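Hi all, posting the design record for the shared folder.

TITLE: backbone redesign
STEP: 1 of 1
STRUCTURE INPUT:
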């Protein structure tokens, strides 16, 4: 039976790689985006050119109405939901906590914590055998920052990813008997343009000497870990946090 997958923040970087690889594995893909419609449509075209099925759906992770509309669109236009990847997230410019304002913190936590919670809620309603679903998988994209704390730069981002780790562990236990597996992947320093949005386009080059493997990671390396968690090869894995961080 065909199943669909929602990948949030899938117009670029890690999300794009996950969407493409999920399509290769036979998923019908919802390519979620916030503002980059052209990039999301490009991912859809790439999937369709390879023989897959995909749609681009705009939804802001800070808006519950957008998230509900996204899930409703998938219900109507794609195969029954089989998986969710909570990938969308933001960073801000490097700052010490003493200089962080309320607006920054609210935006960070709404995007990186509340959005994934709401998406997970809607996914559980569709996947849980208690609700008549056929089970499925949720994979959350966390960060190795959850355990390093990212002092002097991104403590708020690190804290948001620590919350995702806790959500992963709790939700996994909550729905394990309902046919749903919940895991997280914690990337290290990865070559994506999220660093530019935080004001540091060359951050990977600056930090790679601190990585035991002495290099940054590629989005495809994160996607490979996610696809393993989505597959039956990880059928006895739930509540796990998998670091893909070059040894950090």
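Okay, here is what came back for every position:
SEQUENCE:
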């Amino acid at each position: 039976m065909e199943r669909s997958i929602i990948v949030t923040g899938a117009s670029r970087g890690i999300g794009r790689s996950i969407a493409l690889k999920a399509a290769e594995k036979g998923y019908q893909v919802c390519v979620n985006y916030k503002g980059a419609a052209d990039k999301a449509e490009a991912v859809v075209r790439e999937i369709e050119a390879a023989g897959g099925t995909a749609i681009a759906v705009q939804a802001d992770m800070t808006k519950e109405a957008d998230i509900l509309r996204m899930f409703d669109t998938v219900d109507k236009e794609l195969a029954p939901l089989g998986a969710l990847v909570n990938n969308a997230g933001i960073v801000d410019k490097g700052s010490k906590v003493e200089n962080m304002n309320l607006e920054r913190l609210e935006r960070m936590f709404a995007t990186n914590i509340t959005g994934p919670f709401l998406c997970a809620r809607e996914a559980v309603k569709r996947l849980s055998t208690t609700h008549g679903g056929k089970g499925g998988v949720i994979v959350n994209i966390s960060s190795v920052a959850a355990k390093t704390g990212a002092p002097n730069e991104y403590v708020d981002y690190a804290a948001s990813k620590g919350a995702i780790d806790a959500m992963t562990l709790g939700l996994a236990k909550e729905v394990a008997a309902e046919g749903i597996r919940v895991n997280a992947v914690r990337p290290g320093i990865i070559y994506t343009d999220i660093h530019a949005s935080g004001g540091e386009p060359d951050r990977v080059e600056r930090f790679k000497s601190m990585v035991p493997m002495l290099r940054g990671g590629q989005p495809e390396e994160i996607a490979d870990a996610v696809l393993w968690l989505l597959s039956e090869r990880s059928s006895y894995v739930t509540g796990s946090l998998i670091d893909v961080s070059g040894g950090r």
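COMMENT: The domain at 4-244 is CATH 3.40.50.720 (Rossmann fold).
Let me know if anyone wants the other runs.
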